[in-house]
Amino acid sequence: MTGLKNKRGPGDGRPLSDPILSAVEAMEALLETAWKEKKISGPPRISDAEFRESVRRPGKNFKPVINQKLENGVLSAKILTRMRGGNYPCAEMVISASDGHETLPAYDIISALEGVCDAGCTITDVPAEVKRSVTAQYFTEAGASLKIKLPAVPGRRKIPVRLHPVLASIGAASAWAGRFHSPWGFPFFFSSKITYREPVQGNEYYCRLIPHPENKFDIFICDECGTMIESILGLELSPGRTGIQAAKGTPIIPDNLAGRGGSFSIIELETISGFSRLALSDDEKHRCGAMGATRKKSFMASRLACKSVTRKISGDGVIPAHLINTVDSSGLPLCPAGNKGKKYYCSVSHDSRFVVAAASQRRLGIDVEETTGRLLDTKKYYVPEGSAEKITRSPLGELRACARIWTMKEAMIKALGTSLHDVNINSELIEIGETKSRVEYRGVIHSVIHRELEGHVISLIFIEEQ
């Protein structure tokens, strides 16, 4: 439950979905008026928009007012609500033609959602038919993503405003704010909204919500090929005066396992869009081309995670994704964030649900594995007889202990560039714990960090140089 489920609108007992729908309908009606009067041409941009508590369902009680007062074809506009006693302004904004130079995020940023999904967070503040069009929704502390399948509406050329992906996206912002920040109400604002092309009935769309401090959001809506349909920048939700904020649980994004100066990324495979291939470099595309469908998906996920840790280290969130190459000539993961002679080691792993990556100036390896019975069935291959007693005595239980040993050894193989056979005969498990273990390899003791997330264990090892 998001905390906004039972929230009402601005003081009149209406569900919050009503004024959200009113705001979207009002914007579309205003643009229709501007088009009919031939006051704009090209992709329209709405800027500096403010919606107040008096917004209502437009219909006969709605009146757009456009005044061409500003320079260079920029229009100032108002939306009035006809009520008893006169017309009351419910919104103000500026309309212009887009110059096509909007700065859009890189494909690796919008084609996947970082973090561990919160299954308890869901869209509530939209009409029922909008909810039905949302085929998948994901929420993490890093934002949200939606997959939307627009229905076919007989007799209509354009998709009805009540089904527009923008409505679902604002609903997602409402849900995210209620879960991770605070409930909200009216007024709300945004700095810029550009419509690049109209959504088409029956098509699928992908919406990506990127939160910023102070309950502000950027929203990007793409079609299944990655073509931008609509963008809203600087959407700002005012704090709500009613409603119950959802109880905060434990943090759902693990801490930075790579430590100070390093970087860690975790992505759920389900959140990756179909156009993530647009984020690949030429070398990555070449390697991906010959892969089967399952291997291709995990390869692309690994590349997105490696690009994420690279951006975190470099601080560059602008460079196009295809210019970040995350695989070296031998096919190993690469973190091209080094500067001034610094070298970063990079490691990546995936299982059926997660892809994880880490980068650091220290040599490291990472692995993730689901805790299934398969680990017990195969333990003879990775648990030497000398370690069996430690597993038996572990308070973790046999399965969870085996999961830590297996992922630890997989991480060692990656960090050392060696084999399971070498690790088995040249290492000794000193201790095994829930969040930290120690292992000796060829006379050197190494620490291993563990994190367990909903039945999946992540292990990261730093190699101590002799």
Key attributes of the depicted protein:
466 residues; alpha+beta; Thiol Ester Dehydrase, Chain A; Ribosomal Protein L22, Chain A; 2 domains; 5-stranded antiparallel β-sheet
- CA(first)-CA(last) distance: 52 Å
| CATH class annotation of the largest domain | Alpha Beta
CATH architectural arrangement of the largest domain: Roll
The percent range for helix content is 10-25%
The overall pLDDT, averaged over residues, is 83
How many individual domains? 2
Q: How large, in whole angstroms, is the Cα Rg? A: 26 Å
Main sheet characteristics: 10 strands, antiparallel
Structural class call reads alpha+beta
Strand content: 25-35%
The CATH superfamily of the largest domain is Polyketide synthase dehydratase
The neighbouring-strand order within the major sheet is 2-3-4-1-7-10-9-8-6-5
Q: Work out the number of β strands.
A: 18
Query: How many H/I helices?
Result: 10
